[in-house]
Write a structure and sequence with these properties.
Rossmann fold, 409 residues, globular, seven-stranded parallel sheet, six-stranded parallel sheet
């Protein structure tokens, strides 16, 4: 079978790591696998199976167009024509769209081509962008316009912003019409929550929707036999994001760091992994003043090592469609403290790996949970007590489930 994945990144960030894992496992199983992407991991060797249709300047130009005119569906025509030529050359049996809202795909051009050629299509929902006007998640604004029609968007200047025009209603109608043309379509959500939302959406209601959770690379993310944090030095808390932002909870970590510094002193240490390029100097200074260690962007191997040397993973994101970082941390035997958010609370509860706190006034709850885990006030959620409960999906299982989806076409 010949499979083409289209994702903004390869080997970088959560969706990029998942794309790479599936690509490599499909090849290992004897299938032909191809990837269209814009950014690859530094140590990845580009070959004929990985296609980059455009450079940074083209992406920035498309991003500017989207911000000025407000329409994300009809940008990046030149790079999309190159993608179509690549598709014509390799003749895939199935095309899989993942995270494509990175200013390199013209959705109208691509979906019209796929529909005209009747190529089976799998859409993987790593976020809500495919079934909303433009938002990657609606939960922080509690907006449900996507169920019927968007408009008067409360996140117009957030996520992928529009500076002036609100085209969210038009874009949602376009997405509905475009996907309606694709007869061989399967929608795959990475969590039960986002899969159910897809079933209720205007765009994918009535289509075949199924859930396949993201996999964990257990050759990288695994537990060791360290002693519990209760028996050694300070409790090490870590969190990670591909790119830190207000949505990912960077401001909340400023507050949490200040509270922990005042309450625990040097008995608790907090580290943040991930890019801080979009974080202001003032916010970085406040993080550092609160005693938070800023690790920056780490390789996957180094990130896993940081997890294994830590005790607790804290998620303060406003909402994650799955929470791959949470699952990877759990695979390294970390207890987790998470806000309810979108789907991340379900993962913590499923594996009984820690605590889920409410979204409002969460700091006191989080600090109390840290005390329970770090200072042995609750042995059921210390590092030594939770490993057996965590059995994340392997890459092989993940690939086999997708092969089953492909074969149904």
């Amino acid at each position: 079978m010949k499979v083409l994945q289209i994702n903004a990144t390869y080997g970088i960030g959560s969706t990029g790591r998942v794309t790479k894992l599936l690509h490599e496992k499909l090849k290992e199983f004897g299938h032909e696998s191809f990837v269209v992407t814009t950014v690859v991991e530094n140590d990845v060797k580009i070959d004929d199976n990985i296609f980059i249709p455009c450079g940074k300047f083209s992406i920035k130009l498309s991003a500017l167009h989207a911000r000025v005119f407000g329409n994300q569906n009809n940008i990046a025509s030149a790079s999309t024509r190159k993608i179509i030529k690549f598709i014509e050359r390799i003749q895939p049996d199935v095309i899989q769209l993942a995270n494509i809202h990175a200013n390199f795909v013209n959705l109208s051009l691509l979906l019209n081509y796929i529909a005209d050629k009747n190529i089976p299509l799998v859409v993987v929902l790593h976020d809500c962008w495919f079934f909303t006007g433009k938002c990657t998640n609606y939960i922080d604004e509690n907006c449900f316009g996507w169920k019927k029609n968007c408009g008067n968007c409360p996140k117009l200047k957030k996520d992928i912003p529009s500076w002036t025009f609100d085209k969210t209603g038009t874009m949602l109608c376009e997405k509905k019409a475009l996907f309606d043309k694709v007869k061989n379509l399967t929608v795959v959500g990475v969590s039960e929550k986002i899969t159910e939302d897809a079933r209720c959406s205007n765009v994918f209601g009535g289509r075949n929707c199924t859930c396949i959770p993201n996999p964990i690379d257990d050759t990288i993310f695994y537990a060791d036999n360290k002693i519990s944090c209760c028996a050694k030095g300070p409790c090490r808390i870590i969190s990670a994001a591909s790119e830190w932002s207000e949505y990912k909870g960077i401001n909340e970590f400023v507050t949490l760091g200040e509270i922990c510094k005042n309450r625990f002193g040097d008995r608790v240490q907090i580290s943040l992994a991930g890019s801080l390029d979009k974080i202001s100097f003032a916010t970085r200074k406040r993080l550092e003043d609160a005693g938070i260690n800023l690790l920056g962007t780490l390789s996957t191997d180094t990130l896993a090592d940081e997890y294994r040397s830590s005790d607790v993973f804290v998620s303060l994101s406003k909402g994650e469609s799955y929470g791959l970082s949470i699952s990877e941390a759990m695979a390294c035997d970390l207890a987790v403290i998470s806000r309810e958010g979108y789907a991340e609370g379900d993962i913590v509860r499923k594996y009984n790996r820690g605590y889920v706190v409410g979204n409002d006034n969460c700091y006191e709850q989080i600090v109390n949970c840290i005390a329970k885990i770090a200072f042995c006030e609750d042995s059921g959620h210390t590092k030594s007590g939770v490993l057996e409960a965590c059995e994340p999906q392997s890459v092989a299982e993940y690939a086999k489930k997708f092969l089953t989806v492909y074969e149904r076409f």
